[in-house]
Amino acid sequence: MARKFNSGFYPVARTVLLITGTAALFGSLLLMGMILFNLPPYIRTGSGIFGLTEYQRGIPVQARLSNDLPDTSLRLRYRTGNTYSVETAEVYRNDPYQTTTLRQPSPDAVLLSADTIYTEFNVLHPEEAPVISGGRLTEMILYLQPEGAGERALFLLPRFLLLALIAFGCRQVYRVLRSIDYGEPFHQRNPQRLARIGWGIIGLQGVYGILALVQQYIIRVSFASSNPAFRSPIRLKAEWASPFSFEWLAAGCAILLLARAFRKGNIMQREQDLTI
After folding, report:
1. What are the residues whose beta carbons fall under 8 Å from the beta carbon of 229, sequence distance 6 or more?
2. Are 123 and 129 in contact (CB under 8 A)?
3. Mean pLDDT value across residues 13-27
4. What is the pLDDT of residues 70-90, one digit of tens each?
5. Helices (H) and strands (E) in the chain — how many of each?
6. Residue 217 CA, distance from chain mean position
7. pLDDT at 91
8. From 132's CA, which of 35, 118, 174, 222 has a CA 20 to 30 Å away?
9. In what order do the strands lie in the sheet with 218-221?
10. How far, in Å, CA of 205 to CA of 202, rounded?
11. CA distance 177 to 228
12. CB 232 within 8 Å of CB 88
């Protein structure tokens, strides 16, 4: 079958798809080795590290946060006889702090230390920027190092399935572009190829939805110090972020509709060929 279009777009696009699909397949195989045999999904050589280098510290897991950054916090350490106590008082940056306004734990208490922690918000052009009164953390990446194959599979399955779907989708799109390049945009197999991609995306989102029900993890992160007067500037509470996406689910449905349109085009093409 001879090429019908002389444009260089289709060969370049097929080359990009071939490289992308091969890289995704290679990454999925590396993750499979990590799930089954706990092998690192990267290769160290004399010239550098190749593969999934972000897995050097562990399995990256995205978590959702809803934590406000405090403006100012104060921690006081008292001694009453042989008894030590620590009290915390929340104040604001724009309010002058006065020790006399704090409640004394007892008349004979002695203030041993006081520690005020400030959270600084800086911008590139402070003379032109508005005042920043606070902030909120919404996302974080945690690196996990599970020992069992079951736990590794639980946390690696979303990325493994995604890479496998990318490799599969690149192969299908490669064949669709090849048929278009050779003058057969409504080839009888193109609707099937597009439908496979659409169903693959929908199926992947279904698996993500199931995992969202299974992975109900609550992560708490706090900072500690050997100093009794130290107060952690922030305490984090996070939930595992599900990769499920309604946008990708809608994209899968849209690709199924596109496959239906190609199927209709194939029927019209055959009717036209019979007419001629």
Report:
1. 75, 76, 77, 86, 112, 113, 114, 115
2. yes
3. 95
4. 555 566 667 776 766 666 554
5. 4, 9
6. 16
7. 44
8. 222
9. 135-144, 59-69, 236-240, 218-221
10. 5
11. 67
12. no
